[in-house]
């Protein structure tokens, strides 16, 4: 069984109130080194069998059509979970 990870982020020009709230809280909690926060969404899609290039392509298409709102969000990454855990980015910067 394989797993695909899809990360979706708000477009840069879209306000991110949750990210701003977190950015405001971090210094109060002793994490002053962070100057900005953007909050996005992460999806994990399981498949029967291995994650192939065809599975990744289908996940990217699903991400664009179903998992994200293309008006306000960008799909920033679609990756094989195992490769992602090993530090190997399979697909990035899809927007």
UniProtKB/TrEMBL annotation:
Keyword Ligase listed: yes
Domain of life the protein comes from: Bacteria
InterPro entries, alphabetized: PurS, PurS-like_sf
Gene3D superfamilies in the cross-refs: Phosphoribosylformylglycinamidine synthase subunit PurS (3.30.1280.10)
GO CC terms in record: cytoplasm
EC number(s) stated in the UniProt entry for this protein: 6.3.5.3
Cell compartments where the protein resides: Cytoplasm
Catalytic reaction(s) noted: N(2)-formyl-N(1)-(5-phospho-beta-D-ribosyl)glycinamide + L-glutamine + ATP + H2O = 2-formamido-N(1)-(5-O-phospho-beta-D-ribosyl)acetamidine + L-glutamate + ADP + phosphate + H(+)
Keywords: ATP-binding, Cytoplasm, Ligase, Nucleotide-binding, Purine biosynthesis
Gene Ontology biological process terms from the UniProt entry: 'de novo' IMP biosynthetic process
SUPFAM superfamilies noted in UniProt: PurS-like
Claim: Nucleotide-binding is one of the keywords in the record: yes
Any one GO MF annotation of this record: phosphoribosylformylglycinamidine synthase activity
Family recorded in the similarity comment: Belongs to the PurS family.
Subunit structure, as described in the record: Part of the FGAM synthase complex composed of 1 PurL, 1 PurQ and 2 PurS subunits.
Function: Part of the phosphoribosylformylglycinamidine synthase complex involved in the purines biosynthetic pathway. Catalyzes the ATP-dependent conversion of formylglycinamide ribonucleotide (FGAR) and glutamine to yield formylglycinamidine ribonucleotide (FGAM) and glutamate. The FGAM synthase complex is composed of three subunits. PurQ produces an ammonia molecule by converting glutamine to glutamate. PurL transfers the ammonia molecule to FGAR to form FGAM in an ATP-dependent manner.
Family matches, as HAMAP family: PurS
Record's protein name: Phosphoribosylformylglycinamidine synthase subunit PurS
Classification of source organism: Bacteria, Bacillati, Actinomycetota, Actinomycetes, Micrococcales
